[in-house]
Amino acid sequence: MAFDLNSLKYNEAGLIPAIVQDAAGGAVLMLAYMNRQSLEKTLATGETWFWSRSRQAYWHKGETSGNVQRVKEVLYDCDRDTLLVKVEQRGAACHEGYYTCFHYRVEQDGSVTTVGEKLFDY
Question: What is the pLDDT of residue 29?
């Protein structure tokens, strides 16, 4: 039985949030948006494709940096309005050079601490 991509609940711009998670370690790497076409490309190629809201264009994660994401599994939530994409991350997921985009921790006193190892300078 084939899954109907149109059964997902895209927002008014035709986008659905995609949480990208390290398949092996479980770290949340990033949040991006997909439309139907970028999800189709992701499923067809086995690497992540997203829709850039700022550039209004498709982007293949790692196309210029080489830090590609090999898709291991794509899941959707019970409301069909969010995707979870489990990947094998090559290099850093974050354009700032960190493995995950979630490397700023807000402390109880309101200060911010950078966590994680920086893998490259941007």
Answer: 98
